[in-house]
Amino acid sequence: MRLRSSFLFLALSLVMLGGCSKSFNVAPPAPSSVDYSAPAEEEVVFTLEDVRSGEDRQFSVGTITAYLDINNEVVFLKNHLEKELKMRGVHIGKDGAAAHPLNLEIRKYRIRNQRSSGFSPYFTFMTFSADLYEGDQKHRITSYFKNGKVPIWAFREVEHPCYNIPISLMVKEVASKVNRHVMKYVAPDAEVERLNREIQAEYDNDYVYMKVLELGYTNNPKAIVPLMELTKHDDTMVQSCAVSALGMLQAEEQLPFLIQYYREHENTQKFMALKAIGDMDTEASHVFMDSVRNSEDYKDEEMIKEVVDLYY
Predict the structure, then answer these.
(1) Residue 244, by phi and psi: left (phi above 0), alpha (psi -120 to 50) or beta?
(2) Fewer C-beta within 10 Å: the chain N or C terminus?
(3) How much is the pTM?
(4) Which residue range is the domain that position 296 belongs to?
(5) Which of 239, 250, 257, 243 lies closest to 279 in space, CA to CA?
(6) Could you say which of 185, 210, 236 is where a domain stops?
(7) Residue 60: inside a domain, yes or no?
(8) Do residues 162 and 195 both lie within one domain?
């Protein structure tokens, strides 16, 4: 009887997993609450060029064939990137009339799903890497985020946590890094204080990690102290997002801490620390990233490889 039950469980799992394809409706990214109070006369104009090749041109990949209602993911990104920057006070100009004409060459841009059986969690991994050109200057812009949902009684349950949230956070992070490299606008100290108060007030909220990431979007070094405290939070997702936000702020003095954090942790905490190290973009961080690229972690762990490859 036990053998028959095990066989039935396996058979049901394979039926639920194999040959499965799903469609998901992607909601417009929710705007960030961060306001840079940017000068109105500063204008930005974007051009986006898709330089992905081969398998990298596939936007939605993974264990399950997932169809997303995005006709053109590059146009989607451009439209919502401009909206996000407008929400933060950055003025978006018309073609040919910009103080900051920018070109974003997209190298990697996909959302990968993963599910090992019909009874396991459904995970997605949002990956983005591009080169931002401003005149003769080039900056690497990256984003990486993992989210999942368990248990799953209906596939519609994964739409928001596994697609809407990662895509929305990717847009916000790209907007933040474009600002950091080019306009260099900084949210007021009061914004940092507000976000920190709200995070403390919502300590046990399942979605408080999103406000932790907003501390990184501020581009304000004042956010480093509260973020360091949040790396000790009880929730590992909050810890991971605090670590990631330190990278967004390029908190170079925290590089030794991030390297140690990477070595001492596993899974999401580990690869988000690696992402933060890559975002530092210093000689010391490059040396460490090179060492990881030549390590067993890179060979054996797909998520580590995905993060490292964003920077090469």
Answers:
(1) alpha
(2) N
(3) 0.91
(4) 187-312
(5) 250
(6) 185
(7) yes
(8) no
